[in-house]
Amino acid sequence: MYCQGLHGSLVSHANPDNRRENRMRWFDYLLRRLIMAVFVLISVSVITFFIARVIPSDPAAAWVGSHPTQELIAKARLQLGLDRPLWVQYLRFMGDLLRGNFGVSVRTHQPILNDTKAYLPATLELVVVAMIIAVIIGIPLGVLSGARKGSWLDHSTRLIAIAGVSLPIFFLGLLLQLTFFGKLGLLPLGSRISNDIALNHPIHVQTGFYLVDSLITGNWAAFRDASVHIILPAFALAIFDIGLTICMTRSSMVEVLNEKYILAARASGISERAVLFVLALKNAIIPTITVIGLSFVYSLTGAILVEVIFSWPGLGSYVTNAVLSIDFPVIVSVTLVVTVFYVIINLILDLVQAALDPRITLN
Amino acid sequence: MKTSRRTFSILLLFVITSLITSNCASATPQVATTAPQQPTVQAAAPTQAAALTEVVAQPTTAPAAQATSAEVDPKSVFVYAHPTAFPDLDPAKSYSNDSVVTSNCYETLTFYNPPGSKDILSPKLASSWESNSDATEWTFHLRPGVTFQDGTPFNSEAVKYSVAKTKELGVGAAYIWDSVNEMATPDENTIVFKLGYPAPLDLIASSGYAAWMYSPTAYEKNGSDWFNQGNCAGTGPYSIQSYERGSRLVMTRNEKYWGGWKPGQFTKIVFEISQDPVVLQQKIESGTADFTYEIPADNIATIQKNHPEIVVYNNPSFQNLVGLLNTKKPPLDNVKVRQALEYSFPYQQFLEGVMGNRATQSRGAVPVGMWGHGDNLTQYTYDLEKAKQLLTEAGHPGGGFDLLMTYSTGDLDEQQLGELWKAELAKLGINLEVRGMNWEAQWDLGKSDPSKAQDIFVQYWWPDYISPYSFLKSMFHSETPTPFNLGYYNNPTYDQMIDKANEIAGTDRPKSAQMFIDAQQILLDDSVSLFFYDRANQHLALSSVKGFMDNPAYPHVVFVYDLTRG
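Structure tokens for the assembled complex are given below, as produced in the milestone run.
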């Protein structure tokens, strides 16, 4: 009765032909999206590469440093291949990229792949924890707010939601630091781990996710320390998503709770909790999932303020420094990495939505 | 089934909460003792002690959970809260703030002493040196018995390799070795540099960039990336223990350091990176950091008032701000108009109102404290009447022309300088456009046709090795092409004078210094630039840290080997 599969796929367990047909449709859909993804990546690479090169800058001068001589600049221009036509440079860049070579930063002279490997896990860890916080807090509050429309709970929750989406993140970050570090002395000021751990119980880095690495190596002191350090930045990053999640979930819930099948469920004696969190939420959560997914990708480079305030060595700070110094290989490479994430997350979102709502087709 | 799943969830939640809470509890005393109100210096020591009670020595590669029992005295850990990441830790290419790290691992042949010292240079890895009469051949006698941290002996071949490799890579300040044509190694402890033209190689060898000596074995075996993964191979007192890129770098003692160790010296250095000045301030105020800089100037007075345990070091840097005047474009091709501009800027008002203690008015092109600085050089003052008179003499009574000043976007000091100057020039009937541009665009405009370029090019300058020639050649020499002579000044007499001064800088430094001073007077008489201010460095340190000596030749560097905790 409550089974809501993909355009009839999950309700058609009994029909093997339909199942096969649906599998083919999934496969076709995936194939089409992957082909589209390749085009998206190529388009983004072309646009980013050429825009980055149109901006007045001299990568050769940046490469040799702040007081370059003409001879050094000329030498660097040859070394970096900047003497060749732009389209040749682009093809060379893409060729390197396909071979796993992201190029070298003209500012730091470091392989961009090494930098990305160092900075991406820190950001991913922060964003994932922030999203978990947003979901855990935002969805239940949104459901209850929608279910008790007009009540004090609804008003309070909406106030939290509005505050969440409107509070500037830099202000919130400073406020959290002043309160939890400065006044209460409960949580650390920033960084991923404390000096004590760095000196005494260093994390044996395997994945770059400190919470995971400390757990799998049984380094409990480091796990506790990393957990404590991530609370404030993750909460600061999550607060916007909490507000957004509450708003989206609430409005969807209000709409869904007026549906006849909810009335029927209530009339048949199903508990209110099951009605809200199983029946209604299943339909109401689709817009929320979309928003959370997109917010996740945005946060990969958009978490810059949180990263700066909490001394979090992530991708946002890295990209911002690259943009400020017009480090075009970094700008292009990281844009492509984020685009890949965007394409993947978008694809997953589409599939999840289709799986949750039979009205959404894969056509 | 449902019940057991719920029970498991509750248990899991309980375990995680307990783990986190237990850490919160242990963190509390640390923070409590580091609360901002620490009345005395003595309070700082227990603060660090509490913060680092669990510290024990452990190699980086040791499995995470296996802490050894050899405890490090928490007082012997020096924490430097640093405002930027370290872009490149390769000693051959490093050309940025990473010198705060490299200078504790690598050493140079000679060392540039802080201003006020008896001698300009001290021996470092070279115990003595001499040159021929025209400074085209330099012989350095190396300190015997020194080894790199990887065990490779430090000798003349190692010096030859370091210089040759740095030159070959050609990145950063590598050009400082341009004069070197050949290197001979007559014996293990002697290296002879043969130059293509006279140059002060003793000064060049003291540079904080591109002059580090590093292990040939390590460089050949591991390559550049190895250094940026958190490794170093110098002869210095500390080596890198661990490195979290963009976050933290830990250094530990090189027990075999040739200088030896005395009681009280620090055993570890921790560089904590934070780009937020507020965080840096909180770290030094709470005593969790021993040293920092880049604190907003407006907050310094409050810190000094509320935190007697913090010492503010306010010393000149070797960096100055200049406004190069376009000598090829009317009306600034007229020296009287340029002189009028010199008299139109409200130096004292700007320094007192905007810069506070962060700068002093320049006197010439070479900053105060550096050899070649002239205490008796002309210093222009704010005098609008004089400016009006000069404009009238130049045929521009009442002004009536427009000027374009470009500066680097994002620099608030330069922006405020422009706005203030604009208001003063308006009183003379001159319309100044203050245009912020990103550095690349500003530089491109400056390098374009002078007749279409800016009228005033505002930029900072600092030397790569400590010589007046860096300032006087880069910004005012007429050789072509001239990447930074963006006032397009062309005076053969001046060119010859500074070239000659540079030639004798290694053999007759007093005479060379005087010639550099005389050359600056030519610039001032020709009014080719406004020399706005010499910038000061403001460093904050806990007073419990003893022995810090600010050395502008190595900006923001703390030679931790020289420090102890009192």
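Chain B has a mean pLDDT of 87. The first helix of chain B runs from residue 2 to 33. Further analysis is deferred to the final report.
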